[in-house]
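Reader question, answered in our methods column.
A reader sent in the components of a multi-part assembly and asked whether the whole thing could be modeled at once rather than chain by chain. We filled in our standard form and ran it. Here is what they sent:
COMPLEX SIZE: two components
ENTRIES:
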Amino acid sequence: MRCVRIWFSKQGRVKYVSHLDIMRCMTRAVRRANIPLWYTEGFNPHPYLNFLQPMPLGVEGLNEPLDIRIEDEITDADIMASLNNVLPVGIKVTRVTEPYMKSNDLAFAEYEIYFEKEENLVSKLDNAMQSGELVCEKMGKVNGRKRVKEVNVSENIKKYSLSENDDAVIMNVVLPGGNTKNVNPMNLLDALNKYLESDIVPLNIVRLRLLDDKLIPFE
Amino acid sequence: MKREVEKILGSVQKPARYTGGELNEVIKNKDEVDLRYAFCFPDTYEIGMSNLGMKILYSLINARKDAWCERVFAPDVDMEDIMRERNIPLFALESGDYIKDFDAIGFSLSYELCYSNLLNMLDLAGLPVLSKDRHDLTPIVMAGGACACNPEPMADFVDFFQLGDGEEMMNDVLDLLKECKKNGESKQDFLKKAAQIQGVYVPSLYDVEYNEDGTVKCVTPKENAPIKVTKRIISDMDKVFYPDKFVVPFIDVVHDRVVTEIFRGCTRGCRFCQACFLNRPIREKSVDVINEDCKKLCDSSGYDEISLCSLSSSDYSKLPELLSELLSWATEDKINVALPSLRVDNFPEELIKKLNEVRRSGLTFAPEAGTQRLRDVINKNVTEAEVLETSKKAFSGGWTAVKLYFMLGLPTETMEDVEGIASLAQKVVNAFYYNPDKPKGKGVNVSVSASSFVPKPFTPFQWEAQDTPEMLEAKQEHLKESVTTKKVTLKFHKIPISFLEGVFARGDRKLGEVILKAWQKGCKFDSWDDHFKFDTWMETFKECGIDPAFYASRKRDFSEVLPWDHLDYGIRREYLENECKKAYEAATTPQCREKCSACGANKLNGGKCDAMCKNMVQ
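And here is the structure of the entire assembly that came back:
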C-alpha cells in the first residue's frame, strides 16, 4: 500500500458541484479507472480518499490535491492517464506526486476573482480593500450554538493586488485556507458588496493554489 | 450555459441541478440533427434522475443520429422565482437552450400529483399551456408513463399520449414528426397521422358526451382515429434497446445506482395494483442479457450498487441463477446487489444467504392488509404464517429491522381489519424475541407504513368508492390506538393528498378546467407536503361547480361508461368485473404460473406470456 497525491483542476460548469458531490464523483471515477484501490479492512470495506481542502461552491480550482491509498502496482503516469480517460468534462488530473507536505501545513489559498469591467471599479475595490472595515455575516458557533456571526474580513486578507485586462478587472487575493482558519472568497465578496452597497456578481472565481504559512505553494 | 443563468446559480440551493455536465450526458451539434427533443420530468432533478423510463428513452432517442434528446426538470421553487423575476425561460440541461425552440417536448407522467407541474413547466418555458393555443407543429407536446392509462384530466394540455412501452413507439413518433416537419405539414395533419400509430392517443380527435348525471355517455373518434387505442408492448425483452450508459448525477438523488429491469408485468394479480395490469403480459429478460447489462453499466458509471427492477423480484423464474452470475463478479468488485419488491411467500433461505454476501440493506415486506379475509379480498395470497416465517428467517439471518407496508381504506375493510395490522406487527415483534438465533444485544424495530388506498383504472377495483377523508382519518386514529408497543413505528400518508390522487386517477376531461385554475392560483409540487395547497384545490373545485367526491368517493356500476373505456391495455373488461365480484366473496385467484385466468393480455404479444402456464387460455 502507498499513498499518492492526485492534483486535479475543476473548471467550467462543474464549479457548481459541491465539495461533497465532487468527492463522490472522484470516488466513482477511481472505480471506473480500475485503479487498484486499497480498501479498509473491516465489515464494510471502503476505499481511502482524502480531499485536503474543501472547495467553495461556484469556485474553479487549478491545483486541488486529493490523497488516495493504492495497492502498489501502478505507476503515477498510469494513474493520471486512466483517470483522465473517465473523468467528466471539466475535471482533469494535472499531475500525480508523492504527498510531500502534511495537510496540517495548509494555511492559505490564493484566489483570482474576475469582475465585469466598469468605470472606476479598480479604485473602488482598492479603497474597499484598504478600508479595514470589511465585515460579512457567516454561520458559526457562538457558545456551542449555531448563530449568524459577524466576521472581520479585512484583518484576514493576507495580501492582494488588482489589475485590469481587455475583458475584466482581476483581483488576486490570498485568504486563510487551513485546517483551523478558513475564509471563503464568497465571504470577501459579501463584505465588498456590503461596503460598496453594490450587488456585484463576479464573472468567475479561481483558486490558483494552496499555500503553507510561509506562503510557499503546498506540495 | 447562458450567462444570465450563470449569474443566478450562486443564489440558489444545489445549483448542480441546473448545470448539466454530468458524466455520460450526451452532447451533439445542434446543426447536425433534425429533431431536438426535451425530455421533461415534472418534478425536481433528484426525483427525475431516478426514473428508469427516462434513462431508457434518453439513450434511445440519442442513439438516433437525427435527434438530440436533452433533460429538463421542474426547477425548485427558489430557482423558479428568480427565473420568473428575470424572465429566464425554461432551458434544457445539456445545451442550456430554451425548450420553447425545440421540436418535441415529452413528459413522463408517473403519478397524478405532478399534473400541475406539467402546466407550470410549459408556462415557464414560455408556451401556452392549452394544446389548442399552441398552433405550430413544433414544439409538439406528448406524454407517457403510468398516468397515460387515463389521461383524460390532462387532455386539454397535452397534444398526444403514448400508451404502453415506449421503446418502439417513440421511434415511430419521431420518424413521423421529422417527415411532417420536413414537408411543412400542420400540427393537425401530424396529429391525424400520429393517431394511426399503435399506442398513440390524440385526445383532440375524440369527442366526449356526458349524461345528465355527469357520467360519460359516449366517446366518438373523428378523422379516422381508431375507436379503441391499444397500448404498445415490446415483444422480446432480450432484443429491446437498453442503455449501456446512465447519466451519473453529481448530486445525491433518490435512486443513485445501476438499475436493470428483469421482467415486465406481474403474475400475482393483486386486485388493487395498477402496475400489474398495465404491464401485462409477463415478459422476462434472460440471465445473460441482464448480467451483461449490469456489467456494462457498472463499468461506465462507477456505481457500487446494482438494483434489479421489477414488480416482484422473487417471481423472476431464474433468480438463483441470476444472483449467482451477478455475485460471481460483483462481490469481488465490492458491488452491492439490491433486490427490491420481495414477496413474503417466496423468500428462500438460499436467497437470504446470497443477499448476506454483499452489504446488507433493509428488508421490506408488503402484507397490504391486516387480516386473512381482507388479504383474500385483495388477492394478496399471503398468509400470516408466511409473514411470520419469513420474519423469523430474516431475524436469524441477522436483520433487526423490518418494514411492513399496509393500505387503509381497501374495499370491504372494517375496524377489525385495521386492528389486524397492529396485531400482525405485534406478532412480528414477538417472533423476534422468541427467536433463539436473534442477533445478541439488539432490539427490534418493526416499521409499519400505512398508505391510503386509491382505486385506479384497469384494476378490478376501478369501480370502487375510495374511502372518504373522514373515514380514512378514523381508521388512522384507530390504528394508532391499536398499537401498544414502542417497537412498532407507524407512518401514514397524508389523506388530502391521497384524496386528490383519487380524483385525478379516475377523472374525466371536466377536470381540465380545475387543474388549469388551481395552477393559476399557485398549485404546484402537489406531492410535496410543504407545497401542497389542499384548500386552494377545494376552493377551485367549488368555483368550477365540480364535486371531487363524484370522482373519488362514488361507487360505479359495471354498466357505466368509464372515461378510459376507449383505451385498451389488453385486459378484458369481463375479467376485471369477475375479479371484482370474487373480491366481494373473499375468493382468491391463483397466480398466473399456477393457472391462467385469461386476463387477455397475451393477445397483445401473439399469444405469448412468460408466466409459462401450461393451461394458458389463448
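What stands out: The two ends of chain A are 21 Å apart (CA to CA). Chain A touches chain B through 28 residues (CB under 8 Å).
Send us your own complexes using the same form.
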